[in-house]
Specification:
Distance between the termini of chain A: 21 Å
Distance between the termini of chain B: 29 Å
Number of strands of chain B: 0
Largest sheet of chain A: none
Shape of chain B: globular
Strand content of chain A: under 5%
Order of helices and strands of chain B: HHHHHHH
Radius of gyration of chain A: 14 Å
Shape of chain A: elongated
Order of helices and strands of chain A: HH
Largest sheet of chain B: none
Helix content of chain B: 55-70%
Radius of gyration of chain B: 17 Å
Number of helices of chain A: 2
Number of domains of chain B: 1
Helix content of chain A: over 70%
Oligomer: heterodimer
Chain lengths: 57, 141
């Protein structure tokens, strides 16, 4: 759970910066930031599950 | 030809203040925007970079630097992450002067998270620096 928390925090802070420097109206920026956050989380979880099935041990 | 002229004109038109804002934004995360009275954006950008940097250190992450011990390929491998870390501006310089955060703490479970937080804090500050420069140069609102 700790790992998930740090990943979510990383995604949130990065999304804040990406959203803040994006072009467009405030609404566009908020939507872009949320989209970036969602993409980080989705890709992180998807890669986590893919790696889970690899026989690395 | 036309693009060369445009480049030359844009170089001439860029005010000195824009370069200074860029330097300020690099040196202290968020300062470039705050000096231009972009309070919310400055707080968001600066806050995110500061939090990431400090969390990175507290998680046991380490900063990269090239020392005289590193030779050849080993030195080369240190350069790119060091450039990323350097993006944090005076935070990196302060840590370098006080020798804080340059020791690897691989025994900590979260040390790799810390490394990534520190690297990305620097890279995000480069983006913030370019944004502050563009605003000061009048290329962005």
């Amino acid at each position: 759970m700790k790992h998930f928390f740090w990943m979510a925090l990383f995604a949130a802070l990065t999304a804040v910066v990406f959203g803040a420097i994006a072009k467009g109206t405030s609404r566009d920026r908020v939507i872009y930031g949320l989209k970036v956050f969602g993409e980080f989380m989705f890709i992180g979880l998807a890669l986590g599950w893919l790696l889970y099935f690899l026989p690395l041990k | 030809m036309a693009s060369k002229e445009m480049n030359a004109r844009s170089r001439v038109d860029t005010p000195t203040a824009a370069w200074l804002m860029g330097v300020a934004a690099w040196a202290v995360p968020g300062l470039g925007h705050l000096l231009q009275r972009r309070w919310l954006r400055g707080c968001l950008l600066g806050g995110a970079v500061w939090i990431m940097f400090l969390l990175g250190l507290s998680l046991g992450g380490h900063l990269f630097g090239v020392s005289s011990k590193d030779q050849g390929l080993s030195a080369m491998l240190q350069v790119l992450p060091m450039i990323a870390n350097l993006g944090s501006g005076l935070l990196y310089v302060f840590c370098w002067l006080t020798n804080t955060g340059f020791v690897e703490k691989a025994q900590l479970v979260t040390s790799e998270y810390g490394d990534k937080f520190l690297l990305v804090a620097g890279l995000l500050n480069y983006l913030a620096m370019l944004d502050a420069f563009d605003i000061a140069a009048g290329r962005k609102k």
